[in-house]
Amino acid sequence: MNNQSSFDRFLHYGDYPDDSDMNRQMLESDSISPDLYEKMGLLKRAPIPSSIECQTCDQYASIVPWNNKIIAFCPCCGRYEPLEEELIWWTPCFAPVIQSLYDGFCCSEETECLISGILWKLGRCALAGQSRVIYVARGINSNKNSDIVEKLPENRTSLLFVFGSLPQNGKSGTFDADKVFSINSLMTLGEAGFNVNKDPVVQTLDLLNGTHPRAVRGPGKYSKIGGLREKIQIMLEDFMHGVYCEKEQYLNSGHEYVFKKITQVQLAEAFGVTPTMVNNAINKKAFLKGLYKRACDPVAAYNYGRSLEKKTLH
Ligand SMILES: [Zn+2]
Known about the structure:
- By secondary structure, the chain is of the alpha+beta class.
- The protein has three domains: about 20-90, no CATH class; about 95-210, no CATH class; about 220-314, no CATH class.
- The protein is built from twelve helices and 14 strands.
- The protein has helices at about 5-10, 25-30, 35-40, 85, 95-105, 145-150, 200-210, 225-250, 265-270, 275-285, 285-295, 300-314, and strands spanning about 20-25, 45, 50-55, 60-65, 70-75, 80, 90, 110-115, 120-125, 130-135, 160, 180, 185-190, 195.
- The chain has a five-stranded mixed sheet.
- A hairpin with a 2-residue loop joins strand 13 and strand 14 (about 195).
- Helix 7 (about 200-210) packs across helix 9 (about 265-270) and helix 8 runs parallel beside helix 11.
- The longest helix is centred in the last third of the chain and has 28 residues, at about 225-250.
- It starts with a helix and ends with a helix.
- The structure holds zinc ion.
C-alpha cells in the first residue's frame, strides 16, 4: 500500500465539514488501513451504527438489540445476525494532523478552536524571517464557508492551511491565494509517522518578502503615505517578532543564528512602491524612523520581538 496516496485521500475527508463514519470496506477502498490509522490516532471507533446495508438486498437494515444480542432487521429479508465486522465503524480524527502542524511549524501560543471541528487558530510561528499567525480549516468549500470566513482575521500577514482542496474562487475571505496552502502539500506520511514540510510556505513567503517584486501590486496601491506607513510598521514588527522567534529556535536546536536585516529596497518591493517612497515614509515620521533603526540592529530587533511575543501571550 502506498502510504502517501492513502494519506492524501484521508486529508481529503477534511473537504467536508462533518464527520462521517466509515466501515472497513469504505476505508480500504481508499487504500486506508483502519488498523494502522486507528493506531496513529487518525481514526476513532464510532458507536455501533443504527442501520447497515442488508447482506442480501439493497435495503437498509436497522440494528436493534434482541435477546442480549445485536441483530439486523431488514424490511425485505427480515431478521439476521450481522457479522462483527459490519458493526465496526470509524470516524476520522484530525487532531494528530493539527498537532503535527503545530510542532512542525514550531508554533507558539496555544491552539485555539474557533469553530468546533472546523476552524482553529493554530498558533504563531516564525517563517522566512517574519512572524505569522496560522489558521487551519476544514470544509472550506462546503456550506460552512461563510461561517469560516466570518471568523478569519482581516490582516494581510496571517496564513490559512486547509484540509483537502484549496478554496475555490472567493472562498478564502480576505486571504490572498498566496497565503493559503493545502495541508496535502505540507505533510507526508512515512514509515516513522508524519513529516511536515515547511518549504512550500517558506518559498512563497520569500517571494512575497521582496526577493522578487509582486506582479499583482502595481505602484499606486499605497500611494497614500499614511497607508504605506501602516504597512511598513506591520512588516517591521512582524520582522522583529520573527527575529526573536527564529533566534530562539536556533538557540534551542544548538545552531548559530545569523541576523539578516530588512532593507528599504525589500520593503519597497514588497509593497510595489519605489525605495524613495519608503525612505520618505520612514524618515519623516520619528516613530517609524525609530522602529526601522531597531529593526536594523540585531539586539534591538530581538528585544523588541520579545516584547511583542510577551504582548501576544497576554
Ligand atoms: Zn434485505
